[in-house]
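Lab notebook page, bench 4
Experiment: in silico fold of construct C2
Operator: M.H.
Input chain length: 260 residues
Purpose: comparison with the prior construct
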Amino acid sequence: MSAEVEGRLSAGQRRALIERLVTEQGAVQVEELAASLAVTPSTIRRDLQLLTDQGKLARTYGGAMPATSAEPSLGQRSALASAEKDRIAEWAAGQVSIGDTVILDAGTTTGKLAHHLRDRSGLTVVTNSVMALTELVDADPVQVVSLAGELRHISQGFVGPLAELTLSRLTADKAFLGADGLDSRHGICEASLLQTRLKEQMIAQSREVYILADSSKLGAMPFNAWAPLPSRWTLVTDTNAGETDLAPFRCLPEVTIITV
């Protein structure tokens, strides 16, 4: 269908087409939809909000994805808020000191953090992330400890008793955790209890905890598995996070909020 024809669609037809595109592609971006449908980005945002309110879609940073309980793949998540995640990862890398032992959780932002740590001498990285391991596989200055266990293919992270057993033998200076969603009351949201159990253990084994969550994750509750927030931690997000997004976290004791 040409842009000219698509631009003459009724609002209902346009939203039905958007819903179909999201289902087929797994994730879409506002600017791409606006260009292909010959309407303004603000029109697309209103369409996405209405479809989200109707339970047909789930909003992501800059776009939308299917509103199902299905977990997006790591590849799908990598395409979302890429620049924001890289800024968060670069800031987090600046908190790592020579001689540190750090835990990197599985996820796209922590994978980007691993990239920024490739040249650090005297650094030990403990991780369950295939993405982080791939980044560090030829990083000779970095000592790498893998939390190998059961591989969750969709998130490319190891979980389960074997990963937990290895982690129980270690302590770390800092832990950098990702999240599918972050809620001030419930904590870190993930698709699997195995993921949240390992995150809790990462928190318990670390002196300092950083949760790396771009602004689309704040207040999001896409699944039903939760890891409670630590008593003291740092939230690192991007500058698109508004005061409404951040206010619930500002009310928590012993939390530091960084926007980059």
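Observations: The chain is about 40% helix and 25% strand. The chain has two domains: 3-68, 78-259.
Next step: discuss at group meeting.
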